[in-house]
């Protein structure tokens, strides 16, 4: 074929040559569409609503017409039992046996969770409602009960002495239990053996120790035997006895979850056992250890009987935990609600509301301090790491310049 002058040659395409034994090119992968496993269906919603309505109707018919039953608790139990049976029956029309059991177990678990949330909300709302008369008064938080009696109005007296006592007692108890609990938990995991198994058994047995026993133990040893007298420090010792096994047990469980490969990598780098525990194990389990401290604090901050036996009761401010009687918020609430006067009862529920607010503040503070994920650094730690990296880079650059100077000199002197 002849082409005109200046015309470019045509582009010809030839079939792709496939070498013998070569695999053909695979097609482009198609993005897989994920299935939403948690998406509910309309039939599931209808089954829940139908079973609930039918259970309430049948229970009302049984209690109101057919049987001589009465009582709110009995009505709720019968209605819930009927609800489970009817829900299983409705689900069985569309699903097989394992699916029916799975749906039934899910409903039971969610029902128990709802009951716990409702109970917690009822306690909080009831406490706030009963203490609504005392909480609006500013003197309730800034004064003690030195100049106020049972017949005085709510405009006189307060719980400042109980707040100070609670903070000092729980602070001393945490200062004693947190280091001891963490060290014991690390020992149980890093130094296994017969003694570690014995200590773990003792700790598990102490988790069920009644609070009155801890108070009697400190009363017999510190107050009677040593003659220290009732004080806030003695109450802190009793609270420490209650908190220590909780912190040890929870920290032991958390440290067990740290992967063994992290320890092996640290040992492979030549790190000692205690540096591995300090720099690898504890930072990895920081969030769980914070939770264990929170659990221990929750156990100790609400105890009344150990404080009653070891700290005594005082209506005056006592900021010295090592001398004299010192009251706490749970003990103050206990003493206030024993009075038949409405003002004192309102003070008791207001004290309980202040205790809940204080516990919430402590939990938030502990979560902010130790709730970071493993490997996550604070701003100050990140800044220190950046400065250290800059110093390392400058040192490496200076070393490179120093090593390059002799090589250049040797090149000039060479013939």
- Low-pLDDT stretches are none
Average pLDDT, all residues: 82
| Helix percentage range | 55-70%
- Helix tally? 15
- Structural category is mainly alpha
Gross morphology:
extended
The largest sheet, given as strand count, sense and whether it forms a barrel, is: none
Query: How large a portion of the residues is in β-strands, by DSSP E?
Result: under 5%
Number of strands: 0
**H/E element order:** HHHHHHHHHHHHHHH
Radius of gyration: 35 Å
- In whole angstroms, how far apart are the ends? 68 Å
Could you list some keywords that capture this structure?
single chain; 415 residues; mainly alpha
Question: Any overview of this molecule?
Answer:
The chain has 415 residues and is mostly helical. The protein has helices at residues 42-66, 72-92, 97-130, 139-142, 160-190, 194-206, 211-225, 232-256, 260-268, 273-284, 286-301, 305-310, 329-337, 342-370, 379-413. The protein has 15 helices and no strands. The mean pLDDT is 82.
């Amino acid at each position: 074929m002849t082409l005109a002058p200046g015309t470019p040659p045509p582009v010809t395409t030839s079939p792709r040559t496939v070498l013998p034994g070569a695999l053909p090119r695979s097609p482009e992968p198609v993005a897989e569409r994920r299935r939403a496993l948690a998406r509910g269906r309309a039939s599931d919603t209808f089954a829940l609503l139908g079973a609930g309505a039918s259970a309430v109707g049948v229970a009302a018919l049984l209690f109101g017409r057919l049987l001589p039953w009465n009582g709110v608790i009995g009505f709720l139990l019968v209605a819930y039992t009927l609800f489970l049976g009817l829900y299983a029956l409705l689900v069985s029309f569309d699903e097989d046996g394992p699916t029916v059991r799975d749906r039934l177990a899910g409903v039971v678990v969610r029902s128990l969770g709802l009951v716990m949330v409702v109970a917690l909300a009822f306690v909080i709302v009831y406490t706030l409602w009963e203490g609504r008369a005392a909480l609006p008064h500013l003197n309730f938080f800034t004064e003690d009960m030195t100049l106020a009696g049972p017949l005085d109005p709510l405009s006189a007296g307060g719980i400042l002495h109980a707040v100070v006592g609670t903070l000092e007692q729980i602070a001393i108890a945490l200062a004693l239990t947190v280091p001891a609990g963490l060290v014991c938990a690390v020992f149980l995991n890093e130094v296994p053996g017969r003694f570690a198994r014995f200590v773990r058994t003792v700790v598990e047995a102490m988790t069920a120790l009644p609070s009155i026993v801890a108070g009697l133990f400190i009363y017999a040893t510190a107050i009677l035997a040593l003659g220290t007298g009732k004080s806030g420090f003695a109450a802190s010792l009793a609270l420490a006895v209650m908190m220590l096994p909780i912190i040890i047990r929870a920290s032991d469980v958390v440290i067990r979850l740290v992967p063994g490969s992290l320890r092996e990598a640290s040992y492979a780098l030549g790190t000692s056992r205690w540096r591995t525990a300090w720099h690898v194990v504890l930072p990895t389990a920081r969030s769980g250890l914070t939770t264990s401290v929170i659990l221990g604090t929750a156990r100790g901050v609400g105890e009344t009987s150990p404080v009653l036996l070891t700290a005594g009761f005082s209506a005056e401010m006592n900021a010295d935990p090592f001398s004299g009687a010192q009251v706490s918020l749970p003990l103050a609430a206990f003493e206030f609600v024993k009075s038949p006067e409405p003002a004192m009862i309102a003070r008791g529920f207001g004290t309980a509301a202040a205790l809940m607010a204080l516990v919430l503040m402590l939990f938030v503070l502990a979560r902010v301090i130790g709730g970071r994920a493993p490997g996550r650094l604070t701003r100050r730690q990140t800044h220190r790491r950046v400065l250290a990296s800059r110093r390392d880079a400058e040192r490496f650059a200076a070393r490179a310049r120093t090593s390059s100077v002799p090589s250049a000199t040797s090149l000039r002197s060479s013939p």
